[in-house]
Description:
This protein is mostly helical. It contains 11 helices and 2 strands, in the order αααββαααααααα. It has helices at residues 2-15, 18-21, 27-42, 56-67, 69-87, 92-115, 125-155, 159-166, 171-232, 241-255, 260-272, and strands at 45-46, 52-53. The protein has a two-stranded antiparallel sheet. The longest helix is centred in the C-terminal third of the chain and has 62 residues, at 171-232. It is elongated.
Amino acid sequence: LPSFLAALPILLALFGGEEVRQTRWDPWGIGVWFALLLVAEALPVPMLRGGTMTIASILDVGAILLFGPWVAGALDLVTTIPAQMFILRQRAGEAALNAGLYASTTILAGSAYLAAGGTLGAPRLSDDLLPILIAGSLYFMLNTGAVSLVLGTRTGEAPGRIWREQFRDGLPQHALSIGFGLLFAQVRVAAGIPGVLLLVLPLLFARYTLRRYADLKEDLVSFVRALSVALDAVDPYTHEHSVRVAEYAVRVARRLGMREHEVETIHYAALCH
């Protein structure tokens, strides 16, 4: 399966329609996007339910608008594999799986953008707004759907439930990613490479904020778990009882379709009950 998914973007590029092959060559821009995507893939932020997220979606949208789907997908492929294998030390199969998913998503979204009448270069909002929204929506659904499917395969949970818990509330953030991707494309054409590099600063700050938020969540869970273990140690008969209750409570809450912030509250309450 990882081999097939890694080969899928190549198959799309070879046998896809004319939209896939439309390209706007910009060697300097492509080089900068390669470096930025490599950094983005090397600095992931863990999600609450497993897996990771990056700011690469913003760069993908910008690459689609500037260079076309084939080049944008190729950038995903050639940055994800080395970043995950040599920097994050992931297995080759997992890196190939992720690279294939990301590149295929970008190629299909970019093809939808061009098929809907979008133009490469600096998009014109009056003419290209609808194609951008179509491509952005398809990118979001394909990307989050594929991640949910992979996580569901690993954990044995229903992918639809994982999608609702992880991504349903992320539509505003994704809309912001589309806007930032559009801004990157406009700045590349209007202000050149220096303007693009200046735009990277708020993205790095956003990544730092997400990293701190994830660390805070992890620290909070660790603290509550340590507290429950200390309490359980008073009575050997109930040792790890709170941990088991928390696991059951979380599973029941998710089976009931509760929102993730409610599940977190139940998790903490069960650990401390």
